[in-house]
Amino acid sequence: MERTQELLVNMGPQHPSTHGVLRLMVKLDGEQVTWCEPDIGYLHRCFEKLSEQKTYTQVIPYTDRTDYLAALLNELCYVEAVEKLFGDAIQVPERAQYIRVMLAELQRITSHLLALGSMAMDLGATTPFLYCWRDREKLYSLFERITGGRMLYNYLRIGGVRNDLPEGIIGTPQDGEDKADKTIWGFINYFDSYVYPEWKALVTGNRIFQYRTKNIGVLTAEQAIAYSCSGAVLRGSGVKWDLRKNLPYAIYDRFEFDIPVGQNGDSFDRWWVRQEEMYQSSRIVKQCLEWLAENPGPVMAPKMPRVLKPPKGEVYHRIEGARGEVACYVVSDGTTNPYKVKWRSPAFTHLQLMPLLCPGHKVADIIAILGSIDVVLGEVDR
Questions:
Q1: Which of 3, 67, 104, 113 is 20 to 30 Å from 285 by CA-CA measure?
Q2: Distance CA 150, CA 144 (A)
């Protein structure tokens, strides 16, 4: 009787397709995966414990370094959580609210561009990855003018934002591709007319890409809910749940946008949802630009003290991050430092799907599944 022996393979932690220092332990029967287990902890930096040693304002730069590809979204979650601790004592100006939402959606576009570009490159398509960097550079130039930073910002503040938008950066609805790195209107018009259609034609409609992703890593709606999935992973399985719509925070209840959902729950659907979400983010940014152009005003709550001492209490706040539901639990003991900060990372939750989705597929399909989940190890390990 012929017998075969399973082969145990380590993928990572130094591997270009594991999106950070992630180790996957994989058992193979020939080319077929029979078992897969993630091993994390290589990037642990004690973010939550360090927060106890800092003032409430000093914690903001540390949030940038969890999901470092969507830093502004992390800042938004944290500052809104602390503002909840103060109750009605802090009234964030309306202009600051619109700036926050606009930058959050631009940040979502940059994050999704890299998710799509890196997944395509993982599967052998190098050109889309170069295109994603080309377009992200334009947004990074805008972020640098607004915040002073290209990737990590420390821009949002408890009570508003650090500074108003630079003069002329909003632009006009007539701005075209030549101003894509100079005005926000220029980038949005460039994205709608060129970037979004290009991705649909170059990658999403490519037969080879579809062959590598369709019916690969299928996650049913029931499984997605049972595993506490969120974001594009949950919506890719057909569950229409987006915190911006279902439990609006900030001022998201003022905007018109749709929630894209997949049908099959496979790697292709998770890709497709992120592609469509970029277009919906563009719609939200346009509405913000129209309001901001007509409504000047303050960007910080009045009479904010330099050192904050929220009353004793605790708060749990969650937002729709680039990778799913980002949440922050903050406990105040009435002093200048948080007593406790706990971070909920969607990437940590989604990484637990690997043992479920990989068995039965070929070893090369692991890369497609991991890319479609879109993990960032900075927020997994924290």
A1: 67
A2: 5
Non-local (6+) Cβ contacts of 89 within 8 A are none
Could you name the CATH architecture of 7-381?
Orthogonal Bundle (1.10)
Task: Copy the structure tokens of residue 261.
Answer: 């959902």
Closest CA to 135 of 91, 197, 78: 197
Helix axes 94-122, 267-294, angle to 10 degrees: 150
Q: Report the C-alpha gap between 118 and 116 in whole angstroms.
A: 6
Neighbouring CB atoms inside 10 A of 12's CB total 21
Phi/psi at 193 (5° precision): -90, -20
CA 33 to chain centre: 29
- Three-class HEC string of the chain: CCCCCCEEEEECCCCCCCCCCCEEEEEEECCEEEEEEEECCCCCCCHHHHHCCCCCCCCHHHHHCCCCCCHHHHHHHHHHHHHHHHHHHCCCCHHHHHHHHHHHHHHHHHHHHHHHHHHHHHCCCHHHHHHHHHHHHHHHHHHHHHHCCCCCCCCEECCEECCCCCCCCCCCCCCCHHHCCCCHHHHHHHHHHHHHHHHHHHHHCCHHHHHHHCCCCCCCHHHHHHCCCCHHHHHHCCCCCCHHHHCCCCCHHHCCCCCCCCCCCCHHHHHHHHHHHHHHHHHHHHHHHHHHHHCCCCCECCCCCCCCCCCCEEEEEEEECCCCEEEEEEEECCCCCCCEEEEECHHHHHHCCHHHHCCCCECCHHHHHHHHHCCCHHHHHC
pLDDT of residue 45: 83
What is the pLDDT at residue 102?
Answer: 96
In this prediction the pTM is 0.93
Residue pair 233/353 in contact (Cβ under 8 Å)? The answer is yes
Residue 244 · residue 277 · CB < 8 Å: no
Q: In degrees rounded to 5, what are phi and psi of residue 6? A: -70, 145
Structure tokens at 153: 């910002």
The amino acid that residue 324 corresponds to is G
